[in-house]
């Protein structure tokens, strides 16, 4: 899952706030579809792109939660 951290850094979509992340259970690991990948790779600024970026954010949260919380 290291690719998610690299992708998030490139996309500039991850902002981890432990005050919001840690009081809750870890986010579920999302399932990425072909449409999500297309939206991320094409830098889609519409609804599909926003949903794909949210999935990246949730995946990073799921990965980092055990380490930060």
Task: Please characterize this protein's 3D structure.
By secondary structure, this protein is an all-alpha fold. The chain contains four helices and no strands. The chain is elongated, with a radius of gyration of 12 Å. The protein starts with a helix and ends with a helix.
Strand residues, percent: under 5%
- Helical residues, percent: 55-70%
Number of helices: 4
Mean pLDDT: 80
Calculate the terminal CA-CA distance, rounded to whole Å. Answer: 19 Å
Overall structural class, as computed from helix and strand content, comes to mainly alpha
| Low-pLDDT regions | none
User: How many strands, what sense, and barrel or not for the largest sheet?
Assistant: none
Chain oligomer state: single chain
Strand and helix order: HHHH
Mass-distribution shape: elongated
Number of strands: 0
> What is the CA-atom radius of gyration, in angstroms?
12 Å
Structure described in brief:
The chain has 69 residues and is an all-alpha fold. 64% of the residues lie in helices and 0% in strands. It has helices at 2-11, 18-21, 34-41, 47-68.
């Amino acid at each position: 899952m290291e690719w998610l951290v690299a992708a998030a850094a490139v996309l500039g979509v991850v902002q981890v706030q432990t005050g919001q992340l840690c009081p809750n259970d870890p986010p579920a690991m999302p399932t990425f579809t072909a449409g999500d990948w297309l939206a991320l790779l094409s830098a889609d600024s519409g609804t599909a792109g926003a949903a794909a970026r949210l999935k990246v954010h949730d995946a990073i949260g799921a990965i980092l939660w055990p380490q930060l919380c």
